[in-house]
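Progress report, Aim 2. The chain analyzed during this reporting quarter is listed below.
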Amino acid sequence: MADWLSRLLELTPASGRLEVRCLYGAPWRVVYEDSAAGEIPYHVVIAGAAVVEDPAGGPAEVLHAGDIVLMAHGSAHLLHDGSGRKPATARYREAPNLTVSENVGSGERLDMLCGRFVLPAHADRLMRAYLPARLIVRGGENAGQLSGLVALMRQESGAGAAGGDAMLKALSAALFALVLRLASEVQDAPVGLMALAGSPRLAPAMEAMMSSPAEEWTLPRLAALCNMSRATMARHFQDKLGRSASSLLADIRMTLAATELRKPGGSTERVAELVGYHSVAAFKRVFKQHTGHTPAEWRRAGPAAVAA
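Predicted C-alpha cells for the chain:
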C-alpha cells in the first residue's frame, strides 16, 4: 500500500521548472505578482539571506542558506535584503537552462534559485485548500536531506550539459516531494495537510482516505481507526486541518475522479463507482460543485479544462 505522500503525489502530479538564479549583493529586491492557477513559486537560498514577505500583510520571515519557501497559493510576494534601500540595478543573462540575474551590490552575497511547481488544473484545489499560503522548510534542520538535491540543482543550472533542462525539471519535482515530506515532520506545522500528516493520532484516518477513497468513511469508522470518540475525532481534525474529514474525503475523491474521467473508458458511471458514489446524480452534483464542469464537459474538454 502506498504511503499518504506517495498517494497524494499520484493524485496531484507536480512538474517543476527552475527559472532564475539570483546572484546579488545588497541592496536587492525581487517582486513576484500573483501566479496563474496551478503554479506554486519556490525559492531556495543557497548562500546569504533573504527576507520574504507578502505585500498584502502578514509577518516577514528571514530565509537563510539551505532554507526553501513555497508560495503554495501562488500569491504575490517579494524578497529583499532587508535594508529598505533602493535596489541596485540587476542585469540578466541567459545560461544554458535558466536566466541568471546579477547586480554589483556590496556586502554579503545572495545566491538563490527561483522556480515554480506546476500542478494540473484538477489538482490545484486540493493543494491550495490544504497547504498554507507560505510554506517554509528550514535547511538547518534538514541539511542532510536537502543539501544533496539542491547541490545537484545548482550544478545542473550552470553546467550546460546535455539533458540539463530535463534534469532540472525532474529535480524540481523531487524537491516538491521532499519539501512536503519534511514539512509534515516538523512539530509546529501550520494548520493544514502537513499538520494532519504529522499528527500520530490522526494520521491513520488520512492514510485510509488517501489509500481507499471509495470506502464509506463515516466519522465513526474514522474515529475507530484513530481510537477516539466521534466528538474528539471531529474536534482534533478541525483543529489540525482547518476543515472536516468529510471535506477532505470529497476533495480526494473529486481529484481522483477528474483524472479518471480523462482516461479511455472513463464513463461517468464507472468513475462515480470508483470514487465511492452509488448515485450517479449525486456524483455529478458534487463534481460540478468542485470543478465548475459536469463530468461530460470535463471529459470533452480534455487537458484544456480549467478547474473553478
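The chain has two domains: 4-190, 199-304. Confidence is low (pLDDT under 50) at residues 304-308. These observations will guide the mutagenesis work planned for the next reporting period.
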